[in-house]
């Protein structure tokens, strides 16, 4: 088996900061809430934002 040189995997967070042009002190994260409220749970009546209101598409 040939000796394959390896490189450490880049940090996903550092990669995103560089890609999005954000400073090093900012840490990207994602909070994704899924599912349905429990029976009897009180939930605020809200409307959905359009996709364009919550996303930014970066193209290169």
Feature tags:
60 residues; mainly alpha
Polypeptide structure, described:
- It is a single chain.
- With 60 residues, the protein is mostly helical.
- It has helices at residues 12-20, 51-54.
- It is elongated, with a radius of gyration of 20 Å.
- The chain starts with 11 loop residues before the first helix and ends in a 6-residue tail after the last helix.
- The model has no long low-confidence stretch (mean pLDDT 78).
Shape: elongated
- Estimate what percentage of residues fall within beta strands: under 5%
Structural class: mainly alpha
Terminal Cα separation, in Å? 38 Å
Brief overview:
The protein is 22% helix and 0% strand. By secondary structure, the protein is mostly helical. The model has no long low-confidence stretch (mean pLDDT 78).
């Amino acid at each position: 088996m040939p000796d394959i040189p390896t490189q450490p995997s880049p940090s996903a967070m550092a990669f995103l900061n560089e890609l999005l042009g954000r400073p090093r002190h900012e840490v990207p994260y994602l909070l994704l809430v899924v599912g349905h409220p429990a029976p009897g749970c009180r939930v605020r009546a809200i409307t959905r934002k359009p996709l364009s209101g919550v996303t930014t598409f970066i193209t290169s």
